[in-house]
Amino acid sequence: MKHIDIYDVLNNPTLIGQETVVCGWVRTFRDSAQVSFLELADGTSFPRLQVVIDKSALTVDPECTKLGASVRVKGMVVKAFKGEGNELNASSVALLGKCPPEYPIQKKRTTLDFLRTIPHLRLRTNTFQAVFRVRSVAAQAIHRFFHERRFFYMNTPLVTASDCEGAGEMFRVTTQPWNASYKTEEEYYKNDFFGVKAGLSVSGQLEGEVAATALGKIYTFGPSFRAENSNTARHLAEFWHVEPEIAFAELPDVIEIAEELLKYLIRAVLAECAEETKFFDTFVEKGLIDKLTHVAESDFAVCEYTEAIEILKKENARFQFPVEWGSDLQSEHERFLTEEVFKRPVFVTNYPKEIKSFYMKQNADGKTVAATDLLVPGIGEIIGGSEREADYEKLLTAMKERKMDLDAYKQYLDLRVFGSVPHGGFGLGFERFVMYVTGMENIRDVTLFPRWTKNIM
Ligand code: ATP
Ligand code: MN
C-alpha cells in the first residue's frame, strides 16, 4: 500500500499541492455544517494530521469517523488553514479496520495503571508513543556515541554457564522434564542440554572484559535477566543493559566516559525528540526540559562512599534503614544524596569491598574497592561500574574469600596471567535512562511487555 508517513506530510513543504495517500488511526472527529475534520495518527509523528472533508463533495462511511478506526485517505496536501504545518483535503476516505465502541483507549485520560493491563493497546496513546520514540532515538544515540569513539559493538552470550556473581538472581535454562528425578544435583546437570548448569546472563561484563583486553574499547547493548524478587518501580526481570568495557582505563576514566555518555544521550533526546520532551514536560514531569538542559551542561558531582556515609549518618532519623560505614546504600539513601544533598547526578566512589563484587579493583587502603555508582534524582542508581582487579593474586584471594569455584573462572583469571592491563567499565540500565529522560516513574511503562515476578506475557 503506497502511502506517505504523516511525519512527511506535516513537515515536507514540497508536498504542498500534491495528491498523496496517508494511512492511520482516527484520533478525533469533528463535524460542522459544510466540513468535517478527522485527526489521524500513524505513529510517525507527535502532531497528528488534520484531514479536511468537504461534505458537499464527499460522503464518508460513518465507521471511518469512529475513534480508533484505521483508514486510508487520499487527498491534496495544503498549508494548514490555522497554525503551522500542512493538512490534507480529502478526496476519498476508505475504511481499513473498524473500531467498536468498547475500544479501551478512550479520549478522557486513563491511568497508567489501567493501561498496564492492556499492553497490546496502550501504545496507541500519545504517552506511550512518545516513550517509545524516545527509547528508539536513545538506542540509536548509544550506538552512535560508541561508534564515533571507536568502541566496538560486541554481542555477548545470553545463555551462559558463568553466573557473574549473581548466583541467586539467575534464571536457569534447562531442557530437563519437570519430573526429572536424579539421585544427585550433579547427575541432573550432567544429563541436561549443556551438561552443566546453565542460565540467562545477568551481565555481559565478564565476556566484555575478554573483548576489551584484545580490542581495546568495546560495548555491549542487549538484554540482561535478573530473577530478583524485587517488586519495585525500577526493576524488571528482563531489561536492556549498556555495558562498555575499556582497556588501559582506571576509575576516573570510567567516570569520565559514563558522564560523557549520559550527557550525549540527553542532548540527542532533546534535539531529536523536541515534541516528545515538550509533552513530557507538560503532562508528566514539570520542568523536565530545564532539568535535562541543566544536567547536559553542568558537571556531575563525585563523592567518596565514606563521605556519603558521614552525610547520611547525620540524617539517620529520617531513614527506614539507618546507615553506618559498611552499609549497602538503599534507594532512600541514594535518592537523598542526589536529590537533597547534591541536587544533581552524583558518582559515589570507593565502596567497602564486602558489599561489592569480587572482580572490583582493591584499593590500597585494604578496605574499599574502586567501584562507582551513578545516582540521579528521581531514580537513584542508573549506572554501576568499577575498575576491575588486574592483579592475579589479589583477584584469586577475593574469589577464595567468597568460596567461588575457581575452575569455572579459569579463563577469567587467564586475562590476568597473559598481558594483564588495568581496565574498567560500567553498566547502564537502558530503561532507567528512558525513565530519567521522560519523567516516567515506573519502569513498567517504558518497556513494551514488562516482565517481573509473577507477571509475564
Ligand atoms: P540495583 O541496586 O538498583 O538493584 P544493581 O546494583 O543490582 O542495581 P548492577 O548490577 O550494577 O545493578 O547493574 C547495572 C545497572 O543495570 C544498574 O545501575 C541499573 O541501571 C540496571 N539494572 C540492574 N538491575 C536491573 C533490573 N532488575 N531492572 C532494570 N534495570 C536494572
Ligand atoms: Mn549496582
Give a short overview:
This protein is α+β, with helices and mostly antiparallel strands.
Q: How is this structure best described in words?
A:
The protein has 457 residues and is of the alpha+beta class. It has two domains: 98 residues, Nucleic acid-binding proteins (OB fold (Dihydrolipoamide Acetyltransferase, E2P)), CATH 2.40.50.140; 324 residues, Bira Bifunctional Protein, Domain 2 (BirA Bifunctional Protein, domain 2, 2-Layer Sandwich), CATH 3.30.930.10. Helix content is 30%, strand content 24%. It contains 13 helices and 16 strands. The strands form three sheets. It has an eight-stranded mixed β-sheet with strand order 6-10-11-16-15-14-13-12. The chain has a five-stranded mixed β-barrel with strand order 1-2-3-5-4. A hairpin with a 3-residue loop joins strand 14 and strand 15. Helix 3 packs across helix 6 and helix 6 crosses helix 8. It is elongated, with a radius of gyration of 27 Å. The relative contact order is 0.11. The mean pLDDT is 95. The protein binds adenosine-5'-triphosphate (ATP) and manganese (II) ion. The site of manganese (II) ion has 3 residues, from strand 15.
